[in-house]
Design a protein that fits this description.
By secondary structure, the chain is an alpha/beta fold. Helix content is 27%, strand content 25%. Among the domains are: 1-138, Rossmann fold (3-Layer(aba) Sandwich); 350-420, Luciferase, domain 3; 433-531, 2-Layer Sandwich (GMP Synthetase, Chain A, domain 3), CATH 3.30.300.
């Protein structure tokens, strides 16, 4: 295992362990390891045979479909870096992402087909593979022509993901084969995954939590079950119907299920492992999940995209059980994401990862500070070097990534998350910079705008105000905003104020606006998007 250098070689480990077992269940089709490998080699051969030359960055313009998963593997087999693109995202955003990443080929499914023409007109594409499009079928026999590219190393890029940017533009995060390999080597020993396991797979490939599902499963010879958002709202049914043994989710989804009474006692007896990631995990939600899946371990893992999927982990035990430890509830600051309770610790760093706490000027408590980390999972820097400014710090002669997360070190449970140092928020596990939302609102209206997150019992929601100027058509504005931003970045509440309230310094009173928004959201609890109601 330790000699594995390239990401797709982890898939081949599963291929050797379980060649005729299922690797993937998607869209009503169950695909064995042997078949998925055959298709990936055939598609890789097609990429390598592009008339204009082999591509280096392949955009995966596909939803959770056979094309998406096969295309990811084929890209890795072809020696290129994968750039997941969301068919549900606006064309303008996909174009910005693909252009920044240097995408020179596309693999497309029917969901992404509508965007091919506008992207092809502006990108220097060498080839477009649309296996279910007219004339797009790729014969399996082409696998015989596949030749593994030579001269590759762990330092080569495996994939490039994009996160929300405070400047109003998405930030490209290049992740190397070595980065992902370091994560897998650290994370796999925590579990007993094997060919009999069945993983849930809820999130699109544009979200790095999907990489956990795929390669933790494939490295173990397990099967990945692709689930729709609707299916994910009834985990007990999914566990029963598909024999799932591993469930991976964000705390927001679990908290929504908890609030809707979907976590019935002992409703998921077949689960062996549950993994939470993406946001602070409220301890009462962990307890509710434990009661629904009493036979499951429960891990809370943490890590920004820049530190490759997750860089710390904590095995939670219910209160009163052997090995149980305290929560963050004892710390008055540790309430991030916890409506009515503490949060589960984020634990200790993965093997090979190191950390130090960057204290605020004048701080007298060395156990509290901004979490800074370094190690083999740390990426080398953003695609745009301008985004590196302020994100790295030199300490003890080494380069460390500043996560922006404040933590407290506890001698018993390790690190406890206390909140953010900046305005970045997590919405259903996705990183969102409210400044990016406000930038787009300003561009559309010509007026000032602010956006921020508000906590509700079911999780974090986005709210925004347009300030001053003529009264906008808020419904039309919301439609135009949806043409620029992906769905997870759209504010659920959008209001207009003719005059912005000012604080004592003559600046827009953001605290007052946020407090007012929280009150308005509470009054509207249970309704749909609020556009100036």
């Amino acid at each position: 295992m330790t000699s594995i250098a390239l990401l797709h070689e982890w898939f081949r480990t599963g291929l050797r362990r379980n060649p005729d077992g299922p690797a993937l269940a998607v869209a009503g089709e169950q695909i064995t390891y042997r078949t998925l490998d055959l298709r990936a080699r055939a598609w890789a051969a097609a990429l390598l045979a592009a008339p204009a030359g082999a591509p280096t960055r392949v955009g995966i313009l596909a939803a959770k479909s056979p094309e998406a998963y096969t295309g990811l593997l084929a890209t890795l087999y072809a020696g290129a870096a994968a750039v997941p693109l969301g068919p549900e995202h606006p064309v303008a955003r996909n174009l910005a992402v693909a252009g920044a990443a240097g995408v020179d080929a596309l693999i497309v499914d029917p969901a992404g087909a509508a965007q091919v023409r506008p992207l092809a007109e502006l990108l220097p594409l060498r080839t477009v593979l649309a296996p279910r499009g007219p004339g797009g079928a790729i014969p399996d026999r082409l696998a015989e022509e596949y030749r593994e590219p030579t001269g590759r190393s762990a330092a080569d890029l495996a994939y490039i993901l994009f996160t929300s940017g405070s400047t109003g533009r998405p930030k490209g995060v290049p992740i190397s084969h070595g980065n992902v390999g370091a994560f897998l080597r650290a994370a796999l020993p925590r579990y007993s995954f094997g060919p009999a396991d069945r993983f849930s797979q809820i999130y699109e490939l544009t979200f790095d939590l999907a990489m956990f599902d795929l390669f933790m499963a494939w490295a173990s010879g397990s099967c990945v079950h692709s689930l729709s958002r609707l299916q994910a709202l009834d985990p007990a049914r999914c566990v029963r119907a598909h024999g799932l043994t591993v469930w991976h989710t964000t705390p927001s989804l679990a908290r929504a299920l908890q609030g809707r009474g979907r976590l019935r006692a002992a409703g998921m007896p077949g689960l062996r492992h549950t993994v939470f990631c993406g946001e602070p995990l409220p301890e009462d939600t962990a307890l509710a999940w434990h009661r629904a899946a009493p036979g499951s371990t429960l891990d809370n893992i943490y890590g920004p995209t820049e530190l490759t999927i997750a860089c710390t982990a904590h095995r939670w035990e219910p209160p009163g059980s052997a090995g149980s430890a305290g929560s963050a509830g004892a710390d008055e600051e540790a309430t991030s994401g916890a409506a009515g309770g503490g949060t589960v610790p984020i634990g200790v760093p993965n093997e090979g990862m190191e950390y130090f706490l960057l204290s605020a000027p004048g701080s007298a408590d060395p156990s509290v500070g901004e979490l800074c980390m370094t190690g083999p999972q740390m990426f080398g820097g953003y695609l745009d070097p301008a985004n590196d400014r302020g994100r790295f710090v030199t300490h003890a002669g080494r380069r460390w990534y500043r996560t922006g997360d404040r933590v407290r070190l506890d001698d018993t449970v390790g690190l406890i998350h206390l909140g953010r140092n900046d305005t970045q928020v997590k919405v259903n596990g996705y990183r969102v910079e409210p400044a990016e939302v406000a930038t787009q609102l300003r561009a559309l209206t010509g007026s000032d705008a602010v956006a921020f997150a508000a906590a509700t019992p079911e999780g974090t929601v986005l709210a925004a105000y347009v300030l001053g100027g003529p009264a906008p058509d808020l419904v039309g504005l919301a439609r135009r905003l949806a043409e620029r931003l992906p769905a997870y970045m759209l504010p659920g509440h959008l209001w207009w104020l003719p005059v912005a309230p000012l604080n004592g310094n003559g600046k827009t009173d953001l605290a007052l606006l946020k407090a007012e928004a929280v009150d308005r959201i509470a009054e509207l609890a249970g309704g749909g998007p609020d556009l100036g109601k």
